Amino acid sequence: MKHTKLRKHLLCFRYFYFALGLCSIFVAALATTPAPARAALNPPDPAYFGELERADCNSIAGYAYDENATEQTISVDIYDNSILLATVPADRFRRELFDAGWPNPNHGFLFFIPSSVKNGKIHQITVNFAGTGIGLFGNPKFIACSSSLFPTAVPLSTASGQGASWEQGVELSSSLSGIVTKVRFWRADDEPQGGHTARLWSTTGALLASAPFNETANPGWQYATINFPITAGTRYRVSYNIHNVVAKSFNVFTNGPITKGPLTAWASYYSTPAGNFPSSHSTSNLFADVVFNAPR
User: Fold this and answer.
1) CB-CB neighbours of 176 under 10 Å
2) What secondary structure letter does DSSP report for 294?
3) Which residues are within 8 A (CB) of 2 and not within 5 positions of it... i.e. 6 or more apart?
4) Is the bond leading into 278 cis (omega within 30 degrees of zero)?
5) Where does residue 252 rank: exposed (0-12), middle (13-18), buried (19+ CB within 10 A)?
């Protein structure tokens, strides 16, 4: 029995030293292996680099790559607030990388804004390297698309022009810089079609932009295209003229301004005759409005 136990111990030691010998051979072989092969066995950690360059009401764009593996394509996660909109590959051609002689210059990404984002609200757009939670330079960006002050409001009353023409509208501002793409007004049932003009003013009375309305035969909202940029935090007055009858709702601004998305309506203003700067204050909603996108 004693000899049998001793034999077993000796066998264990032999197996142990044999394993050590194999490890030594592997380490020696690895030490003499060329650097590319060693790198394949132990690849470097990713070194992410990228930028969210643009986010507007058309698209989200930028570039992203791994500096330790520039020949490979990586993807990015695009978020609207905390909601994942999409994961897209950064595989679009980049001229500056091509001009710099990169073997793979295709590291750009592009994502077109879905209709769900074009709802008039403010959206915070964030782009991360896919699956990492690591954000790109330039995060976040804020957009607002197709914003209006009174998207669902309907006039509750009308008022007669009493034989005079009038200019009336609303004073507004935006929390984001952007562009007023259109001015709109509600044409009352008894207001004649045609001959109406959209105007955008500074609060000191300077006329900044004007355009005729492209009117329909039916009453209700009418639109004029102006494409005028406005600055965040600055107040403007948007107005239109009437011939006979104005649509309105009384006491809308009695309790203060109204905010929808990035836009705030502060009060209504009017004047006579038409075409003059609207300077008289009113708490009624006189149904002048805009369609606004941010950024430009």
Assistant:
1) 20
2) E
3) none
4) no
5) buried
Of 186, 166, 180, nearest in space to 269 by CA: 166
The matching CATH number, chosen from 3.20.20.70, 2.10.50.10, 2.60.120.820, 3.40.50.620, for 148-294 is 2.60.120.820
The pLDDT of residue 164 is 93
Residue type, 196: H
pLDDT above 70 (res 110): yes
Residue 271 CB burial class (10 angstroms; 0-12, 13-18, ≥19): middle
What residues does each domain of the chain span?
48-145, 148-294
Helix and strand tally (H, E) in the chain?
3, 20
Fold of 48-145: Immunoglobulin-like (2.60.40)
pLDDT tens digits for range 112-134: 999 999 999 999 999 999 999 99
Would the CATH topology of 48-145 be identical to that of 148-294?
Answer: no
Q: Quick one: average pLDDT of 107-112? A: 98
> CA-to-CA distance for 262 and 176, rounded, in angstroms?
6
Burial classification of residue 125, based on how many CB atoms lie within 10 Å of its CB (0-12 exposed, 13-18 middle, 19 or more buried): buried
Beta bridge partners of 135: 128
Q: Which two tokens stand for residue 79?
A: 């978020």
Spatial CA neighbour of 66 closest among 45, 40, 52, 86: 45
List, for residues 158-211, the tens digit of each pLDDT value.
Answer: 999 888 999 999 999 999 999 999 999 999 999 999 999 999 999 999 999 999
Half-sphere exposure at residue 57, Cβ-oriented, CA atoms within 13 angstroms: 19
